[in-house]
Amino acid sequence: MRCPYCQHQESKVVDSRPTEEGASIRRRRQCMACGRRFTTYEQVEVVPMTVKKKSGGIEVFDRNKILKGLIKSCEKRPVSLEAMEKAVDDIEMTLEAKMVKQISSEEIGEMILDRLKDLDEVAYVRFASVYRRFQDIDSFMAELEELRKKKTD
């Protein structure tokens, strides 16, 4: 760490403690050249995750978009807001665990479908019909058959 007084490159940490809110660490340092003390703060660098859309556009990940989609799919269904929020938390934790800077909207959509399958089958079909853009009744029926097959397995 560079000394703010003499610009020397080397310093030693004299004291280290977390800040009151716990979001950073306060360090007291002493310059190895001039001996003066100064304070630095260390924080975790958060790199926002981005989402690559089907259209090719890129936007910052927004968990609220996922929650809005779940709420719309589960409208008038016996699914609690807490269950939907838990699904969003699970998706967000899974994405963070992957430690990638960018993810495709298709991957997120599939993760949502996986969670909806367990929450409510009607909500699953609602979301799938919009997400997969069913063109006709045959593609809709194929999705229903796939869901029925997985349910019996």
Describe the structure.
Its cofactor is Zn(2+). Negatively regulates transcription of bacterial ribonucleotide reductase nrd genes and operons by binding to NrdR-boxes. The chain has 153 residues and is an alpha+beta fold. It folds into two domains: 11-43; 50-152. The chain is built from five helices and six strands, in the order E-E-E-E-E-H-H-E-H-H-H. Helix 1 (63-73) packs antiparallel against helix 2 (81-98), helix 2 (81-98) runs antiparallel to helix 3 and helix 3 (105-119) runs antiparallel to helix 4.
Widest sheet, order of strands: 1-2-3
Low-confidence stretches: none
Strand content: 15-25%
Number of helices: 5
Overall mean pLDDT stands at 88
Largest sheet: 3 strands, antiparallel
- Compute the number of structural domains: 2
Provide the gyration radius in Å: 25 Å
Helix residue percentage: 40-55%
Gap from first CA to last CA: 60 Å
Count the beta strands.
6
Note the overall shape. Answer: elongated
Which structural class fits the helix and strand makeup? alpha+beta
Give the SSE order as H and E letters: EEEEEHHEHHH
Summarize the structure.
Helices cover 46% and strands 21% of the residues.
Brief descriptors of the model:
5 helices, 153 residues, 6 strands, elongated
Task: Set down the secondary structure blueprint.
Elements: E1 11-18, E2 24-31, E3 37-43, E4 50-52, E5 58-60, H1 63-73, H2 81-98, E6 102-104, H3 105-119, H4 121-131, H5 137-152
Parallel strand pairs: 4-6
Antiparallel strand pairs: 1-2, 2-3, 4-5
Helix pairs in contact: 1-2, 1-4, 2-3, 3-4, 4-5
